């Protein structure tokens, strides 16, 4: 391909990594046929022409293909990382060098750098924001009120981000429409369950090379992500315990064949702990004290506060790196606790995140969600909106077609039956 140098500023690790990044972006694209078809249409129709867009996402090969789609659609786009440990530096280099997309993301960047990148992105004066956890939108609302009138809308990728948007809406500070990409059926049924399920265990195995068969894996939270992790851990031969606060989900976990108990009971039984709740301090000081020597803890929820690492660090007599993305905390009682990925998303800190085939649908939702905002500019009141059902169905149909799978369609008689109240049983 032709390499086009860019004039915009960027902040990445090493632009010489671009060729390696191109190979991996192309590899991911092979598994993203839905997004590829959307990219081809965007290139012809240019739905984002004249619009400024910022995306705060995990800078991975899959996100690169989304960024390429948005630029093909005419967007003046900037990409920043949504997590300090999830950036793939070769991908960032490729987007800058080969596609002219300014990227502000470095794997391992500190919190100050992350927040500086958020400010740089907002300096771009966006019309559309793609957010992953709502950090950019929250910063905009708190610190950049003078820019609110520029915003057409935002799309949100995660459960955590949607919770924050709901709180903003309740407080009356959300002044533009937000598309809830997370709850699209073609997102959370697949991304959260199959993506998180596989990639979380991939991260654990890459970080530790531990044999999961025969181990007791404690999964905190039985939402779609927790279901995926529990299912895949059992598939590898683990004995799985689920902890929950929601009685309905707890019943579901029990009826799916998992042991269910409070974390206070599970803490002494687990060999590996995975938090997927979106809440804070799910594993706390009292739990660490009960854990086995060498117990491993990691997080696959959005933020790094699910595990109370501050209290663990305060108790520790020594903290040392024992493998990449693996730290051992030695405690006064003689035991040690192993923390993976610094408590951040282990599937992205220690591995490569969700498989491309799953992100194909998630990012198709993002791309079409942005287009929906543009098409309905000025017609949507401030609030949180679901992806329209017809778009969700279109994405599923495109995915099935790419997989070579055909399904039935209703006959005229069946359509009449399900839309009638006069027909009996």
Question: How many strand elements?
Answer: 15
Mean pLDDT: 94
CATH architecture of the largest domain: 3-Layer(aba) Sandwich
What would the CATH topology of the largest domain be? Rossmann fold
What structural category characterises the helix and strand content?
alpha/beta
Q: Specify the CATH homologous superfamily of the largest domain.
A: Adenosylhomocysteinase-like
Pfam families: AdoHcyase (PF05221), AdoHcyase_NAD (PF00670)
Domain S-adenosyl-L-homocysteine hydrolase NAD binding: 192-353
Enzyme class: hydrolase
Subcellular location: Cytoplasm
Please provide a written account of the structure.
The protein has helices at residues 18-29, 33-45, 61-72, 89-99, 111-123, 135-143, 159-170, 185-208, 224-235, 247-255, 263-266, 285-290, 309-315, 346-349, 356-375, 389-403, 412-418; strands at 52-57, 76-81, 103-104, 128-131, 153-156, 177-180, 216-220, 239-243, 259-260, 272-275, 295-299, 318-323, 326-330, 336-340, 383-386. The chain is of the alpha/beta class and 425 residues long. It has 2 domains: 15-187 and 354-403, 3-Layer(aba) Sandwich (Rossmann fold); 197-349, NAD(P)-binding Rossmann-like Domain (Rossmann fold, 3-Layer(aba) Sandwich), CATH 3.40.50. The strands form 2 sheets. The chain has an 8-stranded mixed β-sheet, with helices on both faces. Helix 6 (135-143) links the parallel strand 4 and strand 5 (153-156). One of its GO terms (biological process) is L-homocysteine biosynthetic process.
Key descriptive features of the protein:
single chain; alpha/beta; Rossmann fold; eight-stranded mixed beta sheet
